[in-house]
Design goal:
With about 190 residues, the chain is mainly α. The protein has a single domain, classed as Endonuclease III, domain 1 (Orthogonal Bundle). Helices cover about 50% and strands about 0% of the residues. It is built from nine helices and two strands, in the order αααααααβααβ. The protein has a two-stranded parallel ribbon with strand order 1-2. Helix 2 runs antiparallel to helix 6, helix 2 crosses helix 9 and helix 8 packs across helix 9. The model has no long low-confidence stretch (mean pLDDT about 95).
Length: about 190
């Protein structure tokens, strides 16, 4: 049974799925490459849509995209892309599907250069989360100079659908930044 006395960031109170994501994942530092890649794919598909839309389809994405196995995704053929275009359980945007393939390829190039994608992405924060002190979650920015910098570098490395807003959302999702409101119960966990 859910504890209704918990104070959470205001954006997550519309559904149990949102609350679960907020309580267990959002803002929790992620250092493993498979999870970082999963969030990168999900965030790129979110571009222009609400996060709850993506969360509601997350398991469909997981099944359709081989459990976010970037090595498999990097090898997707045109036939596989067409198969994904017919999958009503995911966002059927051909440019985003093709971006998932090219992003998997770019992801592996970053791994080769830095030893892991985690080493690459976390170097921007010296391996530690940035803790923002927000009175309310509405104060969280959509972009920052750091997300601008990371976005620019990722694009230079061949990544697609990685604008600064997408990258800042990725940073929040993977705990590179902690934008939980000051009164949110997760600030003290």
């Amino acid at each position: 049974m859910e504890d209704t006395t918990l104070i959470r960031c205001s954006w997550c109170n519309s559904s149990d799925l949102y609350k679960k994501y907020h309580d267990e994942e959002w803002g929790v530092p992620v250092y493993d490459d498979p999870t970082l890649f999963e969030f990168l794919i999900l965030e790129t598909f979110q571009a222009g849509l609400s996060w709850i839309t993506i969360l509601n389809k997350r398991e469909n994405f997981r099944a359709a995209f081989d459990h976010f196995d970037y090595k498999k995704i990097a090898q997707y053929s045109e036939d596989k892309i067409e198969e994904l275009m017919q999958n009503t359980g995911i966002i059927r945007n051909k440019l985003k599907i093709k971006a998932a393939v090219s992003n998997a390829q770019a992801f592996m190039k970053v791994q080769e250069e830095f030893g892991s994608f985690s080493n690459y992405i976390w170097k921007y924060t010296d391996g530690k989360p940035i803790i923002n002190n927000l009175k309310t979650s509405k104060e969280a920015p959509a972009t920052t100079p750091l997300s601008d910098e990371i976005s620019k570098d990722l694009k230079k490395r061949g990544f697609k659908f990685v604008g600064s807003t997408v990258i800042y959302a990725h940073m929040q999702a993977t705990g590179m930044v902690n934008d939980h409101a000051e009164d949110c119960w997760t600030r003290t966990k």
